[in-house]
Amino acid sequence: MGYHRRMGQPAGTRMRAAYSDVELEALMADVESDVVERKAAFDGDVPRAVRQAICAFANDLPDRRRAGVVFIGVRDDGTPAGLEINDALLLKLAHCKTDGNILPLPAMTVGKHTLRGADVAVVTVVPADSPPVRFQGRIWIRVGPRRAVASAQDERILNEKRRHGDAPFDARPLHGATLADLDLPRFQYLYLPRAFDAEVLARNDRTLEERLAATKMIAGVEDPIPTVLGVLMLSGAYVQFLRFAGADRADPIVDSARFDGPVTDALRDLDSMLRGHIRTSVEIGSGPAEIRRATYPLPALQELARNAVMHRAYETSNSPVQVTWFTDRVEIISPGGPYGDVSAETFGQPGRLDYRNPNLADAMRVSGLVQRYGVGIPRARRELHANNQEEPEFEVDARRVRCVVRVRADWPGNLPAAP
């Protein structure tokens, strides 16, 4: 289909923006800490390195949710260097924030402390609300106890951390779209009755724009621009379907379709296509009832396809969700890698759940496309197991999630011919 909750600190917690002298002494001596940088002096290339460290602590790629500390006048082994800490030095350190080399401006404090019996300068840097932070155009991060330039994958993670602090992408206005692009009768007569109970709908005290805004289909009453969610649910998106005659993309295509329209229509049209391609075998045994088994259980493919639509990255890719049918498997590809609390290692594990598109997830639930959150993959596994099939396989990287469902191993077409 072509077209975030905050990954920062959990609700109820506070970012540590300051440390006591006791805590600073412990950090000063902890040579393994990845939230500490130490410099014996502030000359030569040190000012540049300190700015890189400030940038890295502001980005907080490891998501420590703790302020980083740069000690000036402290050797690498954590002992005081005996440097004179005067106003001129503190002014130079404060200038690291304001000289325009680090953007956006970091949240940091500079102070003089007496630690382990000596004066040291302490720069405390709070993780940024809107990473990535750049020093002279480059994004610096911490890799254990050292600094490094961010890779493309690191930058993607930092961008998603920023978006967590903003409105989720699916609730953002899609500039260029207008109310005329939305199927308003669908919203009024199909979506609203599911979204609100009859008593609420019976009260005629809300305008259409107010109801569109309440369901996040538009940005607001005063700014009635359709959101990404509104366009997906009430205008258009698409899913691509391909079927090959063999087990390889080089084989001839025997069927193809592009399902356009609102998410509900596109997915239900896909359901019909999947239903038409599933084959069923009939086993007649010694019992009174015949046994019917399908190449694939439809509910499993439905759950996996809907999961791909719900969790895909609409912001970073215009590629559609792709459902590709081979003779030995079905592949479902969703653009965008894991998100938030879910990593490539924990993808699909019970209880590991995060929503890149929380409003789309809720709208799909309202529309009856999903039953409840977090059950799609477990239900697909359960349906496949009941049909004597292997669990779905997931290949996860930063660009996409690829799901593979193998055809039943005992399907008659897979068995060797009788001698």
What is the structure about, briefly put?
By secondary structure, this protein is of the alpha+beta class. The protein is built from 12 helices and 16 strands. The protein has helices spanning 21-29, 46-59, 87-98, 152-165, 184-195, 198-202, 208-214, 228-234, 263-277, 298-311, 358-366, 376-386; strands at 36-39, 68-72, 102-103, 107-115, 118-126, 134-135, 138-143, 146-149, 237-244, 253-261, 280-283, 291-294, 321-325, 329-335, 393-396, 400-406.
Please provide a written account of the structure.
With about 425 residues, this protein is an alpha+beta fold. The protein has 3 domains: about 20-165, Methyltransferase, Cobalt-precorrin-4 Transmethylase, Domain 2; about 170-235, no CATH class; about 235-415, 2-Layer Sandwich (Heat Shock Protein 90), CATH 3.30.565. It has 12 helices and 16 strands. It has helices at about 20-30, 45-60, 85-100, 150-165, 185-195, 200, 210-215, 230-235, 265-275, 300-310, 360-365, 375-385; strands at about 35-40, 70, 100-105, 105-115, 120-125, 135, 140-145, 145-150, 235-245, 255-260, 280-285, 290-295, 320-325, 330-335, 395, 400-405. The chain has a 6-stranded mixed beta sheet with strand order 10-9-13-14-16-15. It has a 4-stranded mixed beta sheet with strand order 1-2-5-4, with helices on both faces. It is elongated and about 90 Å long. The chain starts with 20 loop residues before the first helix and ends in a 13-residue tail after the last strand. About 35% of the residues are buried. The model is unreliable at about 5-15 and about 415-419 (pLDDT under 50).
